[in-house]
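Hey, resending since the last one bounced:
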Amino acid sequence: MSEDDSWAEALCRAVRDRADRSHVEMFEVARSHLHDPDFEDRVCEHPAAEPSLVDQWETFSGDNRGSPASYFDGTIVGRYDGGRRDVVVHRYRVTAAADFIHRRAVEILTGGRLVRP
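The structure tokens again:
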């Protein structure tokens, strides 16, 4: 991991101490990287090396009660807004986790939503 990727590691591990931080504080480290084309690839490296992070991000998703908001369930990621939208089925949970983290970061830090090409 390069110093350049330290933000991705910090973002992935932020889920561990989520009870002690606001959602904005959890995701703030990613603010300047939200539009990087390799955001999810860089984020994906850390849960792949530490699989318990995938479980923790899925639990974080399940704990969310707001709508509209992104969700992560197994290999499925989407946006719930009175119905399931923008659904992507991933081959691996780790890529689903990275997708979810990216979507939630955009939602929480900008109030917008990640639009896929």
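The CA atoms of residues 68 and 83 lie 9 Å apart.

Sorry for the duplicate.
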